[in-house]
Amino acid sequence: MASTADFRNGLVIHYNNDLYSIVEFLHVKPGKGPAFVRTKLKSLTSGKVVDNTFNSGVKVQTARVENRPHQYLYKDDMGYTFMDNETFEQVIIQEDLIEGAGFMKDGEQVSILFHAEEERPLTVELPAHVVLEITYTEPGVKGDTATNATKPATLETGHEINVPLFINQGEKVKVDTRKGTYMERVK
User: Fold this and answer.
1) Is the pLDDT reported for residue 171 higher than 90?
2) Taking a C-beta distance cutoff of 8 angstroms, is the pair 95, 44 a contact?
3) Do residue 96 and residue 84 come from a single domain?
4) N or C: which end of the chain has fewer CB within 10 A?
5) CB 161 within 8 A of CB 182
């Protein structure tokens, strides 16, 4: 059990018969009336984000979770297969638990959040940025750097993103996995 004073970003709690992670919180002490805590909670089963207000000092039940490093191996009909870096055990996870699955390539290191009591995977966290090669895009034209125009490009994982006009096929780009956007060209 924890009180609202123990809230921090990333804390996993039991709420409405589901597991929620605290995305952000704000302790509010108005001039009149009791203090309260405004929170944004993200469901670890559905991915939905909800706003909720807790009265200050309310007790909530926390869930014991563990982040474990894993290596992405391959994708097949069953789902995505990952290997534990320490025990070499393999775990298969469905695509709906992975945000940014289109940016994973074989051998990628990820962090899987497990519910410790049930040994059940909850979410897969990719690195914030990955470097991927462009396998197909229309050729760039000299002088196309002055505008903010973009064009579609296919990455080595098969995922498609928008890149600036001066990016060519065969170049490597840095991609933000949280937003799914181009960041910069990598030499």
Assistant:
1) yes
2) no
3) yes
4) C
5) yes
Would you state the pLDDT for residue 45?
81
Share of the chain above pLDDT 70, in %: 96
Instruction: Return the closest-CA partner of residue 65 out of 121, 133, 143.
Output: 121
The per-residue pLDDT for range 74-122, each reduced to its tens digit, is 999 999 999 998 999 999 998 888 888 889 988 999 999 999 888 889 8
**Residue 170: CB partners within 8 Å, gap ≥ 6?**
133, 134
Residues 116 and 143 in one domain: no
Domain boundary among 42, 60, 78: 60
Q: How far apart are CA 156 and CA 179, in angstroms?
A: 18
The pLDDT value given to residue 99: 83
Contact 15, 47 (CB under 8 A): no
For residue 18, give its domain range. Answer: 2-60
